[in-house]
Amino acid sequence: xxxxxxxxxxxxxxxxxxxxxxxxxxxxxxxxxxxxxxxxxxxxxxxxxxxxxxxxxxxxxxxxxxxxxxxxxxxxxxxxxxxxxxxxxxxxxxxxxxxxxxxxxxxxxxxxxxxxxxxxxxxxx
Length: 125
What we know:
Elements: H1 6-14, E1 18-22, E2 33-35, E3 37-40, E4 43-46, H2 55-63, E5 65-70, E6 73-81, H3 87-98, H4 103-110, H5 113-116, E7 120-124
Antiparallel strand pairs: 1-2, 1-5, 3-4, 4-7, 5-6, 6-7
Protein name: DUF2255 family protein
InterPro entries: UCP028498
Pfam families: DUF2255 (PF10012)
């Protein structure tokens, strides 16, 4: 399994958004959409603001593969469901801290139970 470099982690974590293009069933990439990304240690996580109804999330969950661009990093990734439900508390804190300037408007929905249920870890390929 490949791991993120320190530069990749830092650059992606510092970026406001990440462009994600999940793969379709036939292996082609969907149109990339901007989403928020947070870092937890040596891992990167994303969530669907719209919960399981988000189109990019449904595609990502079906294929578990995609392509991301963020902070000058352009990488194919495997999308893994959060391995430990306890990680969600740390991810909530990371979203609240990183995106605090958006306070209730956008942060509140991304830390609700429906969004927490969509937490995906990005693993470089």
